[in-house]
Design a protein that fits this description.
The complex is a heterodimer.
Chain A lengths: L5 E7 L7 H8 L7 E10 L2 E7 L2 E5 L1 H4 L2 E4 L5
Chain B lengths: L2 H4 L1 E7 L5 H9 L3 E5 L6 E8 L5 E6 L11 H10 L11 E7 L3 H12 L5 E6 L1 H6 L3 E2 L1 H8 L3 E3 L9 H8 L38 H18 E2 L6 H10 L4 H19 L1 H22 L4 H19 L2 H17 L1 H15 L7 H9 L1 H7 L6 H10 L9 H11 L4 E2 L3 E2 H27 L10 E2 L8 H35 L16 H13 L6 H10 L5 H13 L9 H8 L2 H13 L4 H11 L2 H29 L1
Parallel strand pairs in B: 1-4, 1-5, 5-6, 6-8
Antiparallel strand pairs in B: 2-3, 3-4, 7-9, 10-11
Helix pairs in contact in B: 4-8, 10-13, 10-19, 11-12, 11-13, 12-20, 12-23, 13-15, 13-20, 15-16, 16-26, 17-19, 18-19, 18-24, 18-25, 19-25, 20-23, 21-22, 22-23, 25-27, 26-27
Classes of the chains: A alpha+beta, B alpha/beta.
Chain lengths: 76, 643
């Protein structure tokens, strides 16, 4: 996702079985139907991403964000 | 009245950044006790306050957590206590769940998770003023009914902002009336309308994807029913972040902020330092005059106590200026932004953006820095951060740096704005940072386990630092510093005075008395080892007590030079004494030594405690000594060649 892009989460996939990172992402609100937006990106290589979800902003590394599938078209 | 019989044990629980600790401070004021939970290194904060009715309420501030499915030692403590499974801490009578009113989408999920425990609960909607300012309207009555628990509004940072909560807690029934631990859900208060919440009977130990989805769906339904929200974020925060997190402007701002701090430490503190120094000198003379009839005692007091401790006390203003900046950055919410900007760089070096906060605290002192690594969930990242934290230039090194810089580096203006002394200090700090990154990189290479590390860091809303909390923090640091001066430093300074004064020189001695003393002999023996890096025997003597605490090296040097001075030189300040006796190469070499040397027993002790391993202590002490010797050797030899 580019800076300023927004979309709706469709799923968070486990990178391996019982993936604690994926589990925590879901607890933080990355669940199906939740709108997200990339607010900013890190200065070096665009990593990490700053993702707005709900009223909260989380810094996620690319590898963490890669677990989240987002439907970009669904954004208004 | 019997306080314990009627006291209610309350636990404050909530997400990180919900203002829980500010609320705790607001409620308990000065009546708090900070310690550790047994066996683990998670801070336990307890306090008490008296409600208007005269009832004593005991308050426990639990570590912030996103979920009861713990991902760090902090969260595990919160989980165990809330579930009543902690070995030493009984389950609280009442849970006060604190939620940021501007961030309910995230925080309400945890509220629902806690509710599943079935314990008596009150929800505090904190920062309600900020929510109102942003046009967020919360129907408290509807929320109360939907959640089936009392909901109160609080503003932790405002005088009287917790009154509603206090009234509510005061009105709580007696201990015996509260439902027993493990009561079924909903037993606490009759929920008028619990239909919107799908009640789940047992707490879910390992929530699956479905149950996460489930709680989130409930939160969404709750929010739709009870909260109106014009927009998801504060417009001001968006505007600040677009500048502060900008790839170019953001890094420039970070560099300017750091540089300003170091300039301020050097220039703002000077008048205060001069005042302290003058006061110590005046009182030293005064006391010295009273003791003129007892030469030995006079020597102990003036050469030992006043020369030694006074020199260290002078650095208090600088340490306070440094802490002031760190506290303001911490309170304002800027630190996580800095961590965001630096994460990639630190990740490449084998650290994480989260290491930034512990490492920045280490600039004040490695001990709180190492303790702050508890917030790093990944044990490998945490260990690396602990091992490199002593390389950050702690405030105890500042006395050594400032002494040497003031004595050897001229006060030239550079580019009209900065002075050369400030630049050298900045370079020393930078050397520490660069070597920390290099060491972390080496550790990363050596590590065999290459599985993924997580960042997942929340960037909280910006907040105006609250002067009360900042002042509170500064006072705490002052107390810690003065206690160190009063305790270890005092004892060591006196010991060193003794070693330096005895045995007395033989009759007809031509050298200063210290040459004949125990300290002189020890120093001269050590000087053989340290000669290749340019240390004379006086420095070697000062290094020994400096092992206990770095800043003691300055007071030791002061003591050694005060005792070795003869005739007219006796009252010369330490700076002048070393400026005339040391070469520039020696001074630079000592500076280089102090960038690396593990000259602090308490740091090593804290590494032992935090990692629960002597191996890590030996690794860090060993590599730091090695680096220190190497760096000093190179510095000394190079400086001698060019000087």
């Amino acid at each position: 996702m580019k800076k300023g892009a927004s979309g709706v989460v469709t799923a968070v996939e486990d990178a391996h079985s019982a993936d604690p990172i994926a589990r925590r992402l879901r607890e933080l609100g990355f669940v199906n139907g939740e709108p997200v937006r990339v607010v900013a990106r890190g200065p070096i290589g665009g990593d990490p991403l700053l993702v707005q979800i709900g009223f909260t902003r989380f810094a996620l590394r690319k590898s963490e964000a890669a677990r989240i599938t987002v439907d970009i078209e669904a954004a208004a | 009245m019997n306080a314990t019989a009627t006291s209610l044990r309350i636990a404050l629980v909530g997400n990180p950044n919900c203002g829980k600790t500010a609320l705790f401070n607001r409620l308990t004021g000065a009546h708090q006790k900070v310690a550790n939970y047994a066996g683990v290194t998670v801070e336990r904060k307890e306090g008490r306050f008296v409600a208007p009715s005269g009832r004593v309420l005991q308050l426990l501030d639990l570590p912030g957590a996103y979920s009861l499915d713990a991902a760090s030692p902090d969260e595990a403590i919160t989980r165990d206590i809330c579930e009543g499974r902690h070995a030493e801490e009984p389950a609280p009578d009442l849970i006060v769940c604190v939620a940021d009113a501007t961030n309910l989408r995230l925080h309400l999920r945890f509220v629902l998770e806690l509710k599943r425990l079935g314990r008596p609960m009150v929800l505090a909607l904190n920062m309600i003023d900020a929510a109102h300012k942003r046009g967020i309207r919360i129907d408290v009555g509807a929320l109360e009914r939907a959640l089936g628990m009392p909901v109160v509004e609080t503003v932790a940072v405002k005088q009287g902002g917790a009154e509603a909560l206090v009234m509510r807690l005061d009105a709580m029934p007696q201990l015996s009336v509260l439902p027993p631990v493990g009561a079924p859900e909903g037993a606490m208060l009759p929920a008028v309308d619990d239909n919107s919440i799908a009640a789940s009977a047992a707490p879910t130990k390992s929530p699956s994807a479905e149950s996460s989805q489930d709680l989130h769906a409930q939160v969404r339904a709750l929010l739709a029913d009870t909260v109106t929200m014009p927009r998801a974020t504060s417009a001001i925060d968006d505007a600040i972040d677009s500048v502060v997190l900008h790839p170019v402007a953001g890094l420039a701002i970070l560099a300017i902020v750091m540089f300003l701090i170091f300039q301020a430490v050097f220039s703002w503190a000077t008048p205060l330092q001069d005042a302290v120094s003058a006061a110590v000198a005046a009182s030293g003379e005064q006391v010295g005059a009273w003791l003129a009839s007892m030469p030995l005692l006079q020597s102990l007091v003036t050469d030992g106590l006043f020369a030694g401790l006074g020199t260290v006390l002078e650095f208090l203003p600088q340490i306070l200026v440094l802490f002031l900046f760190i506290l303001i950055l911490e309170e304002s919410g800027y630190l996580p932004r800095a961590a965001f900007l630096l994460d990639k760089l630190m990740f490449k070096a084998g650290l994480t953006g989260r290491s930034f906060i512990p490492l920045l605290s280490s600039f004040a002192c490695a001990i709180p820095g190492i303790m702050a690594t508890r917030s790093i969930a990944d044990p490998r990242d945490r260990l690396t951060t602990i091992l490199v934290a002593p390389l950050m230039t702690c405030s105890a090194r500042l006395p050594v740096y400032t002494l040497l810089i003031a004595a050897f580096i001229p006060r030239h203006d550079v580019l009209g704005v900065f002075n050369l002394q400030g630049i050298v200090l900045f370079a020393l700090y930078f050397a520490g940072i660069a070597s920390a990154l290099a060491v972390a990189w080496v550790i990363k290479r050596l590590r065999t386990d290459k599985s993924e590390h997580a960042l997942m860091m929340e960037l909280p809303a910006y907040r105006m630092p609250n002067p009360r909390d900042v002042a509170w923090g500064l006072w705490e640091r002052t107390k810690i510093f003065l206690r160190r001066v009063g305790g270890i430093l005092l004892a060591l300074t006196v010991l060193l005075w003794f070693l330096s004064s005895f045995p007395a020189p033989p009759d007809g001695a031509t050298q200063p008395p210290i040459d004949y003393s125990f300290a002189g002999h020890i120093g001269k023996w050590m000087a053989v080892v340290f000669a290749p890096i340019g240390f004379n025997w006086q420095i070697c003597v000062a290094l020994i007590p400096g092992l206990a605490a770095r800043e003691v090296a300055v007071s030791s040097l002061a003591t050694v030079y005060a005792l070795s001075a003869t005739g007219d030189g006796a009252d010369a300040a330490l700076g002048t004494a070393i400026a005339s006796q040391w070469s520039l190469a020696t001074a630079l070499s000592l500076l280089a030594w102090y960038v690396f040397a593990p000259q602090c027993m308490s740091t090593l002790a804290v590494i032992r405690r935090e990692t629960n391993s002597w191996r890590n202590v030996w690794i860090s002490a060993g590599y730091l000594f090695g680096l220190a010797y190497l760096a000093s050797f190179i510095t000394y030899q190079v400086a001698r060649t060019f000087a």
